[in-house]
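Progress report, Aim 2. The chain analyzed during this reporting quarter is listed below.
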Amino acid sequence: MKKIATVLIMTAIAFTMSAQGQNMAVKRQAEGYMRANPKVLTTHMVSNLTSEQQEKIESLKLKHQKESLLIANEIREKRAQLRTLEQVDKPNLKAINSKIDEISALQNKKMKLNAEHKSKVREQLTDEQRVQFDMRSGRMMGNQRQFRNR
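Predicted structure tokens for the chain:
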């Protein structure tokens, strides 16, 4: 009888802990845990930014985000169109390949836009700040790749 009670209590504890873990994961996502706050990113990537540098970088970032969002939305639209083309009874490979080329061109445009933005931000930094920026930007971008629009 004691063994059964012990097993039941252990099972209840296991279920409770599992539910708590799932609750925390949902809560983190709801709070934006997976998405970085842009102001935090700037201040943590490079230390000792002057107020002039911060203002200039923030304006560059806002401009970049607007342009990048437009391209990302276009890519999502093209991917939806591609899925539609692929899911018909008799898919037209010429149209599918054309849509793939359009998506590739947009991705290429976005990568060039990102490179241009990074270059403009680096222009605002001192040599010491550039080293910090370069050391941290690669790691941060690498972490975001897994959450990129799919």
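The radius of gyration is 23 Å. The chain has five helices and no strands. These observations will guide the mutagenesis work planned for the next reporting period.
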